[in-house]
């Protein structure tokens, strides 16, 4: 029996050593990447070696939080390395090269409509399909910055994404956007998604963005994921800058949803609350305000628009006051039960506050990354008690108390 236990222990040790010694991509705060192998770690530095070979010595704080999480799991590093350094906003720190965006020779079509012909641009992780006077540089910068933010904070995001690219479609006008509807409806019906196709047909013209199936003949040639994102363009001037609030919201949402597995894979309550909170948090963090309205469609034809408190600038201050006065009480289980039909301003801002709380310190971000990985591997949202344990609390009540204290603190803004 002892021999079997020893054999198992040695096997596990060998597995950890092998994984720690593999060549992988290491990332800095500014987005610099290097493919290297872990060699060793001392109190002050991490030693890597490239395939050249060339030795690289770095401070742990020079590496992404995801890399430091990797070192904890596979190189037996002290857990405290994820707490080192100041809390940065990696999306704002990344330095993209001048040639990060290039135009492709081929075009993309969606069906037979002449308005559904798009020129293509690509970056390292995205393909942008655009028309007319649409300028893609700004949204391309936003997309790559949001991607870097996820890769910096969430271990395995880069690995999960792989070498595939995500399609972002930007029609030149509302009419061009509407011209895409028959294509999407037909594709869904051909897939046997009749109910969803009817929903898309009834709501397509009234949303600001939605998912779109990539043309089947373009998936392999362009190495694309099968589902992309399309924007409802009402003014082409909206696509001239980077970090436009609504675009940032949609891109952050798409990448977070990818990391946790997507709405069709994740079961149980809580998906909507976590996804919505994350998107609003990133939108306000990166742009300083929100311009996103949540759409509620209880029945087809009855669409109501709900938003938080105007542009989001007063969200933290208002919620903090309500919590202090006991007019709003943060309750995790109640929040996780919510769907879009139940939203009111207070509930929406609670979702935002929970995401802000989970990403407010390196320690909480590490726990948030662990939670996200748990959802990805299990295809379900953990119950409140398990979620509390992931964040280091023995009870849900203690977790909620810490969340409430964050809301009432100066750190919540």
TrEMBL record:
Residues 1-20 form the signal peptide. It comes from the Bacteria. Keywords: Signal. This is SLA1 homology domain-containing protein. It comes from Rubritalea squalenifaciens DSM 18772.
